[in-house]
Amino acid sequence: MSTTNIAVSADEEKRGDSAHRDNVAPSSQEDSMKKLLFGNMRSYGIYLALVLVIVIFQVLTGGRLLFPNNVVALVQQNAYVLITAIGMLMIIIGTHIDLSVGSVVAFIGGLGAFAMRNWGMDWTLAILFMMIVGLVIGAWQGFWVAYVRVPAFVTTLGGMLIFRGLATVVAGESIPLQSQPFRSIAKDYLPNVFGFWGGLDGLTVVMGALAIIGVMWSQWNRYRKAAEANLQTEPKMWLFLKCLLAALAIGYVTYLFASSGNATQGGVPIVLVIVGVLVGIYWFVLNRTVLGRDIYAVGGNRKAAILSGINTNMVDFKVFLNMGLLTAIAAIITLSRLASATAATGQEYELDAIAACFIGGASVSGGVGTIPGAMVGALIMGVLNQGLSIMGADAAIVKTIKGAVVIAAVAYALLSKRKKG
């Protein structure tokens, strides 16, 4: 009798648990879905901020900000921010900082111009020469930080003074650049192999269409893999909305680039291709390679990284070596755009790169940051520079606004972290 009662009680308990799950599961699923959506909204807040900044300056400039040629100029004139922000992000993730970027740009640009003018060096060899110099400088600063353990702030502060002084010695007042192929790097476009379609650059239209297809495939592939692994997935409506917004944004930008330039030349600037290739390479490095995982591990918890067998000294050395290479690429593009080298080139470049990383979500304590976030932060800085330039704002006003934006971005990140904690 007691055994039967126990069996009946067990069955009732199972039925009760089943009924309880039926009552609670929908609420639990709804809560998890809300958490997923709100988490995504926080992640996409930086994109909303970019849209808001664009809209504000579009209004303030009387619609001139998004003129096709102004959009192309935005990319060409702010390519240095996009490129140096990639290297700066990796350094910040690793809990360091680099204050010497602007001075190194001036020094490497001066050396390149000097080599082409005084040594008769071919422009292709000059590019290779400048990149080698950048690697040497990166190795020099990485050595002091990684192996002598001089704090990066002090090392790069000294580097800022050293290389600005050397830039003054090398470039003097100015070294004009005569090489037309070298100058075309920053001002020319990809050749229009498909002709013009209704006044639009055909190659740009094709590239834009491929970009839309790539984004949609990437989003759907990630959704499919998560579903196959029985992981929590976002609602299909949310996935569709993201793809639609991305397609509209890419389509509009494609139209702006395709209608830029003139009747014979326009479309995709060469510097945009360079930036795009670098973004793709470094996204892969940070997300799909051992080095990328090591950088995040060192930035997240250096002591734990050491205990797990990571050579933290080598990681520190590599991020500064990489910063030297990317700074050299930024120097090449800057020299090409300005068509002359001066000792004053690159003023505050490091501050723009640091600001782009923090605006894009990098943590001041290291271990956090993404390439897309840094690129969006760099675009926000670029829109600020371009919009205020179109408005004819005083340089002091530009610096004030950019400083306020950086403080606001870091404060928002810290407050969000505390709230999440």
TrEMBL record:
Q: Which InterPro entries match?
A: ABC_transp_permease
Question: In what way does this protein cross or attach to the membrane?
Answer: Multi-pass membrane protein
State the GO CC annotations. plasma membrane
Q: Which UniProt keywords apply?
A: Cell inner membrane, Cell membrane, Membrane, Sugar transport, Transmembrane, Transmembrane helix, Transport
Give GO terms: molecular function aspect only. transmembrane transporter activity
| Organism (species) | Coriobacterium glomerans (strain ATCC 49209 / DSM 20642 / JCM 10262 / PW2)
Protein name from the UniProt record: Xylose transport system permease protein XylH
Q: What does this protein do?
A: Part of the binding-protein-dependent transport system for D-xylose. Probably responsible for the translocation of the substrate across the membrane.
List membrane-spanning regions: 44-67, 79-111, 123-144, 150-172, 193-217, 237-258, 270-286, 319-339, 351-384, 396-415
Classification from the root reads: Bacteria, Bacillati, Actinomycetota, Coriobacteriia, Coriobacteriales
| Annotated localization | Cell membrane
Q: Where is this region: Disordered?
A: 1-27
One Pfam family this sequence matches = BPD_transp_2
